[in-house]
Amino acid sequence: MFAYSANRTDSDSEILLWNYKLNLTTDPKFESVATEVCKSTINEIKECNEEERGRGYLVSCLVDHRGNISEYQCNQYITKMTSIIFSDYRLICGFMDKCKEDINSLHCGSINVGHKDVHSQGEVISCLEKALVKEAEQQDAHARPIKEECQKAILRVAELSSDDFHLDRHLYFSCRDDRERFCQSIQGGEGKVYKCLFNHKFEEAMSEKCRDALTTRQKLISQDYRVSYSLAKACKLDLRKQRCSLDTNLPRAREARLSYLLLCLEAAVHRGRPVSGECQGEMLDYRRMLMEDFSLSPEIVLHCRSEIETHCSGLHRKGRTLHCLMRIGRGDRNTNVDGVCQSALQTLIQSADPGADYRIDRALNEACESVIQTACKHIRNGDPMILSCLMEHLYTEKMVEDCEHRLLELQYFISRDWKLDPILYKKCQGDAARLCHTHGWNETSELMPPGAVFSCLYRHAYRTEEQGRRLSRDCKVEVQRILHQRALDVKLEPELQKRCMTDLGKWCSEKTDTGQELECLQDHLEDLVSACREVVGNLTELESELYTFNFSVCLPQDIQIDALLIRACEPVTQAHCHDVADNQIDTGDLMECLVQNKHQKEMNEKCAVGVTHFQLIQMKDFRFSYKFKMACKEDVLRLCPNIKKKVDVVICLSTTVRNDTLQEAKEQRVSLKCRKQLRVEELEMSEDIRLEPELYDPCKSDISRLCPNVAFGNAQMIECLKEQKKQLSQRCHQRIFRLQEVEMSDPELDYQLMRVCKQMIKRFCTEADARNVLQCLKQNKNSELMDPKCKQMITKRQITQNTDYRLNPVLRKACRADIPKFCQPILNKASEDSELEGQVIACLKLKYADQRLSPDCEDQIRVILQESALDYRLDPQLQMHCSDEISRLCAEEAAAQEQTGQVEECLKVNLLKIKQDTCKKEVLNMLKESKADIFVDPVLHTACALDLKHHCAAITPGRGRQMSCLMEALQDKRVRLQPECKKRLQDRIDMWSYAAKVAPAEGFSDLAMQVMTSPSKNYILLMIALSVCVLFLVGLLCGRITKRVTRELKDRTYIWNCYVYWLLLNICIKSKILKSPFGHLQTPRER
After folding, report:
1. 913-922 long-range contacts, Cβ below 8 Å, gap at least 24?
2. Partner residues linked to 666 by β-bridges
3. Taking Cα atoms as reference points, which of 835, 858, 830 lies closest to residue 845?
4. Using an 8 Å Cβ cutoff, are 34 and 62 in contact?
């Protein structure tokens, strides 16, 4: 190595020194010495053996191949000659001839001896190198390009100086101090000093002059990998094995490019082919180098210049400029990058391949270091799963803002090329080649561009065995993982962003928070343009399928639902769904569990909102409910073709099931597995009115008017509308009535009832059929063990049932013959979807008092009478006609928390004070009903319970029999009744007497009943008997005295006498004086 003097020598000395060095390289003596010393080496190196002798080319060739020289003496000789040759570019054989014109045209110096300091000739090569780099970055059509042979010569000089940084004269003098500062302990040779300086390039203490020289050197490496001694040496054999430089169809310049080498070797690594660890280490260093400094990629400098100047100036170091461009590419600054720039960024990301090792991206590595140490510490450093782990912790407490931004910027570009996710590529490369006709890792196809491959994969992810061409299980899991991550940000789904830009601007311009854009598009699914609607529909369908699979990414717990939702729902999952969450079976049980536990105390607002959104989106298309789709798709195609909305499909299938059940079909048309899942869907829909659009849409105005502060979930809104039913609009009222009709026939669909009475159902109704749950609860309503809240809910449902017989399926079935027989006028006036306000039941009550109902119907009306006798609210006619009187006369009784018949008793006691005729009539009807059955009068029954047990135990209840027994006991002086019972009975007799005056008997039955309950019953019966006998005798006498009476008149008199006799007999039988031998009262004709 020549030592350079600080002072310049005179021109003559310079000429003398130059000529001396030039002669050294061209003197035949030196060539002959080389021939002697390196004889065996020359024979081994074919290129050198073929060089023309006498022109100095042999020595130059040996210098070029000095890395392959194994002879010690030859190596020492060539090393000395190298120092001489590289001291001046003009001494490098052939260089001066090839670059003379370019040196002059670029004004890089003069080749005339003495014009400049020849010892500063390193600046000339530096000038040419910079010009070469600038030409690649600018591609100016008006500039004179460097000749190709000179370009090769420049790169050749850089290559020859790649092992020892002393040989790069410009860089050596620019970085002498920096070498001492940063790389003092690094020995020269094999490019070690270069690598050390590269690693410290962005240190604050690095001089700008050295940094510029290093950048130029790196740019040359990006144009020809052989300029890096360590990379060329480490990967020489691998390049040959992987055939990365054998394609004769490609220009040599392209094969030598660093990006080409990296892509070729990365493809081999991703395919699982062996690449030496030393080579992979070198590749990692240079991939990191590309990500750190955007200027090393000429395409970025050329095509992204305006974006860099406008948005990213001053951010050159540590990859910040590149991330700034990525952020613009994402559209985070409300601006878009040029398509060519976007393509250049995508190419650079592919070359650097940061998805394989996050450490390649220095900006990301530094920003996310704390997150990795806390959230992903269980994953090996440099593992590709680190990026997935970071994505899983996006928007969590462990994520920091800077890391979040850098991560999304990188993921935006990784999501646009499926190959950039190494785990996905590894698991799916076979499936992609088989199903999507992809080529190699570093090869693209116009028919199947990188962005379309993932779309192809997820289209095949959920095919059935019958459809064929399915993904392998490993690939399917990875597709699910990617979809799971992309759900966090709409910009991570290329197809969605491409087709939905207009709709995003139109409907979702204000929805910019996490996950809001996709939710917004789902909410406006019907309003989207067809292309956008299709892709949103497909994504939503796949999203619903994602919720059904368990897969572990980087978190220790199972990930089953999208990241945000699973994190929000962790408390309720651990408390109520941990068994389901740990289940590895492909089912949607976890989401069903979350839906069922939406209102547990562990459920927070975020989880509830997420689960509800999931349910609301499912309603738009039955395909969005994975379990429902899989269980019922065949039934839907067969029974409900051309129906897409889930609510319509549910209605269609449930109607089919109901019809088959009512018609007692031999075989149900809906399959068993579908019926089971249909029940789940119906139960979920009953929880939130928004899940039933057919109900929600007509009731929107009523909700805002009547229930503005009521929450939607927990069926609270539906309950509010039920309570405000009389004030609802007609359409909403009709829908609520239909809903109640369905719920009463199938109480399991009554969400509030099932929720409030859950424990009571377990206690009292475990053996009851699901459709008889309400009936069971009603029977146990007055049990001491009954929960007060459940009892209150049962009362609400009883009040509802008594407004219309159609809401009481048991009564409807029992009285199906009696209702049209006795109450047809009421039915004729009624509309189909509005309540009858208890008119039909009131009609049946009157017929019960007249003892004209069928046995089954009589039993049900008796139950209703007994229930309403204890609680006036269960009698809609009484409540409607007597509300004012109750407020005036019985306010204290009505305010009682526990209703035990106080209000009814108050109205009876104050019968004379009642002003309204309609109310008075209702009270009189109550009195009439109480004659027929003492159980209908709870106050009297309570007072006379002991007397009934002692004196009337053998009397069958009903038809006034026990009441008659008590009345007889009251008249019998031998029987001593309880004082309270005696008092109450006397009160009732007075009331009945008043009722008889106010409301005279309407028929023979009423008359008979009044006679039987009269205190002078025996006297009346005796007088009637005497009257009949006298009339009979008179008739006989008149017949004998008046023989002229015609036969016709005699018959008429006989018939009349028989009828009176029949009436008397009827009365006697009721009073137990006589008993019909046929078990029923015989007509006069039978007599």
Report:
1. 913/889, 914/882, 914/885, 914/889, 915/885, 916/881, 916/882, 916/884, 916/885, 918/881, 919/878, 919/881, 919/882, 919/884, 919/885, 920/998, 921/881, 921/999, 922/875, 922/877, 922/878, 922/881, 922/882
2. none
3. 858
4. yes
Those residues with Cβ within 8 angstroms of residue 430's Cβ, 6 or more apart along the chain or in another chain:
472, 475
SS3 track for 688-704? CHHHCHHHHHHHHHHHH
Please give the Cα distance from 200 to 216 (Å, whole number). 15
Q: Are 234 and 240 in contact (CB under 8 A)?
A: no
Reduced to 3 states (helix: H, G, I; strand: E, B; else coil), residue 483 is helix
CA 711, 713, 714, 716 torsion-angle sign? positive
Residue 382 three-state SS: coil
Q: Cα(948)–Cα(975) distance, rounded to whole angstroms?
A: 12
Helix then strand count (H, E) for the chain reads 64, 0
Write the single-letter amino acid at 1050.
K
Tokens of 604: 């927070």
Q: Per-residue confidence at 116, pLDDT binned at 50, 70, 90?
A: very low
For residues 453 and 278, the answer to whether their CB atoms sit within 8 Å is no
Q: Report CA Rg, the chain.
A: 50
pLDDT digits (tens, 9 = 90+) for 274-286: 999 999 998 888 8
As a whole number of angstroms, the distance between CA 486 and CA 440 comes to: 25
The C-alpha atoms of residue 791 and residue 245 are separated, in whole angstroms, by 85
Q: Residue 487: which residues within 8 A CB-CB, separation 6 or more?
A: 515, 518, 543, 546, 562, 563
Interval 457-497: pLDDT, tens: 877 876 666 566 778 888 988 887 887 777 667 666 677 76
Between CA 69 and CA 80, with CA 74 as vertex, the angle to 5 degrees is 105
**In DSSP terms, which residues pair with 551 in a beta bridge?**
559
Give me the residues paired with residue 559 across strands: 551
Rounded to 10 deg, the angle between the 422-435 and 473-486 helix axes is 120
The phi and psi torsions of 479 (rounded to 5 degrees) equal -60, -40
The per-residue pLDDT for range 21-77, each reduced to its tens digit, is: 555 555 666 677 777 788 788 878 877 777 766 655 677 677 767 777 778 788 887
Angle at 708 between CA 704 and CA 712, to 5 degrees: 95
- Residue among 1063, 1076, 1080 at smallest CA distance from 1025: 1063
Residue (of 1063, 1005, 1008) closest to 846 by Cα position:
1005
Cα–Cα distance measured from residue 583 to residue 591, given in angstroms and rounded to the nearest whole number: 13
Question: 3-state DSSP call for residue 551?
Answer: strand
Confirm if 1009 and 960 have CB atoms less than 8 A apart.
Answer: yes
Other beta carbons within 10 Å of 287: 22
Q: Are 325 and 337 in contact (CB under 8 A)?
A: yes
Tokens of 228: 């890096």
Q: Which two tokens stand for residue 1068?
A: 């006697």
